[in-house]
Amino acid sequence: MSFSLGDYVTVNDRLKAALEKFPDLRVIESEPKFVTSPDGKVFVEAKMTVYRTWDDVLPMVGYIWEEFPGTTPYTKGAEQPNSATSVLGRILGYMGFGITKSIASKDDVTRREPTKAFTPQTPKVTVATYPNGDTVPDPFTGQPQLHEEYAIGDVTKGQMGKIRALGRERGIATNKGLFDAIKQVIGRPIGMLDHLTKKEASHVIESWMPQDPEPVTVGAPADEEPF
Questions:
Q1: Does residue 157 share a domain with residue 82?
Q2: Rounded to an integer, what distance in angstroms lies between the CA atom of residue 171 and that of residue 96?
Q3: Tens digit of pLDDT for each residue in 7-34?
Q4: How far apart are alpha carbons 212 and 54 in whole angstroms?
Q5: 204 within domain boundaries
Q6: Fewer beta carbons within 10 Å, N or C terminal of the chain?
Q7: Residue 75 and residue 67: Cα distance in Å, rounded?
């Protein structure tokens, strides 16, 4: 099923519009908590209260549950800030901001858009040979030794630099530690970063990239966009 993100409005844009109409608007975020559904799934529950004016006697209150752990690269590890952004977007939508086409915000749709599945490499299995072409026998069985060959690495220098930087951010201090961590992501061992393909390197970078920052409680327009 295809859709256009142009049909959706970001939470940030909804908040700007709300602040233009209600300059005294306040967003109060309650402490998040974990809840368990009847089928045993765990969720982070976010609750927000939005006061349109300082004396608003009927503020908007909203809740949302974000599955924990997240099920996409954009939600895993950022379940709490994602749930906070989502509930604020919903409340502002119920207030009439940015709902020309959908109550869902662009942030919600983008985070939950399925990413193209990563398929680990399938190695080409060949018979190991000596330089003269003779088969290398297994020392125990005498049968020909088999050798797994993976696609030639075409990783870029930029990708390798990014992977090393992300590895340091994750507290990985040695090459062995880095290669072991990469193996957990791509499903095969490597002896050098040069052995990675561009596709594998991109998958590692996407998997290790930090998620959305914590949301900011808003009382007035800020110089920096919080969402």
A1: no
A2: 45
A3: 446 778 888 888 888 999 998 888 888 8
A4: 30
A5: yes
A6: N
A7: 9
Alpha-carbon gap, residue 75 to 90, rounded angstroms: 17
Q: Has residue 61 been placed in a domain?
A: yes
Task: Name which of 137, 145, 183, 148 is nearest 163 in CA terms.
Answer: 183
Q: Report long-range pairs for 104-107 (Cβ below 8 Å, ≥24 apart).
A: 104/8, 105/8, 105/9, 105/10, 105/11, 105/14, 106/5, 106/8, 106/9, 106/10, 106/11, 107/10, 107/11, 107/227
What does the block give as tokens for 168?
């340091």
Q: Which contiguous run of DSSP H or E holds residue 83?
A: helix 79-94
Bridge partner residues of 182 (DSSP): none
**Is the same domain home to 135 and 184?**
yes
Considering 112, 133, 157, which residue would you say is the last residue of a domain? 112
Structure tokens at 153: 């690495």
Do residues 95 and 161 share a domain?
Answer: no
Domain boundary among 112, 141, 173: 112
Instruction: Report pTM.
Output: 0.42
Q: Do the beta carbons of residue 111 and residue 79 sit within 8 Å? A: no
Would you state the pLDDT for residue 51?
Answer: 93
